[in-house]
Amino acid sequence: MEFKETRVLVTGGTRGIGRGIVEAFAVEGAQVAFTYRSSVAVAEELEEATGGLAFQCDAADFDGAEQVVKQMVKAWGGVDVLVNNAGITRDNLLMRMSESDWDVVINANLKSIFNYSKAVYRVMMRQRYGRIVNISSIVGLTGNPGQANYAASKAGIIGISKSLAKELGARGVTVNVVAPGYVETDMTEGISEKMKENMIRSVPVRRTAVPEEIAAPVLFLASSGAAYITGQVLTVDGGLSM
Ligand code: NDP
After folding, report:
1. What is the pTM of this model?
2. Which of 40, 57, 88 to mutate for ligand 1's pocket (most ligand atoms within 8 Å of CB)?
3. What does the CA dihedral 182, 55, 216, 2 come to, rounded to 10 degrees?
4. Is the alpha carbon torsion for 231, 177, 107, 139 positive or negative?
5. What is the pLDDT of residues 171-215, one digit of tens each?
6. Residue 182 Cβ contacting ligand 1 at under 6 Å
7. Is the beta carbon of 117 within 6 A of some atom in ligand 1?
8. Cβ distance 43 to 14 under 8 Å?
């Protein structure tokens, strides 16, 4: 029960990695609020199961982020942990990538980090305590053909995280990044078996990850044991990117 009475906010908590993070914090006794975009039924069921708070709010919506944090503070009095997890892909080679493919990915994946970090900034400063964990991707470190928009958003997450780590360190707020490799979720469902087999051959541990294996390092970075770790990028990829 490391996180008993800890107030946690996870963006994109209904499915995949975000859901794994919501459930892991709830098991450890945290009060968990989460956002989602469209999965209303799943959100209601998860809200009930975890005794938390669900907010239907597009992560790209600046005012929406402020409202979510306001309501969470009203309900629970503060925000101790923010996990910026919501993210999408719109893959295509750059020559075929539309302006909207670019904008929608940058807004959902990167502007969302700005939105929620800004919304919790003063709250965490006043508390003189906070943990922000941002979910990037190894693609933000290595690049990937067909994912220029996604890679740019995920590399941008590293830049904003390091800057915030420097801004907020003296106030007891740490900001770190988890960069997963290949995780079995709806996001990666469309990848062909052949591509998957090829990719797994280059992963030193020879398999893909499950969401719980991303949640565990997120919980570590939010724990008291990680108080002296800030501005870091933790790759959780079975060794793929080394
Ligand atoms: P999924 O597609 O499985 O789940 C995405 C979750 O985010 C859903 O809960 C979805 O809500 C929510 N979401 C998506 N867009 C928005 C938005 N604009 N506003 C609010 N909520 C939103 O994705 P994953 O779990 O695979 O990915 C989670 C994060 O991990 C992403 O940032 C992704 O880039 C990153 N990642 C994933 C990897 C992988 O292999 N899966 C590898 C590396 C990084 P709803 O259910 O309502 O649609």
Report:
1. 0.98
2. 88
3. 180
4. positive
5. 999 999 999 999 999 999 988 899 899 999 999 999 999 999 999
6. yes
7. no
8. yes
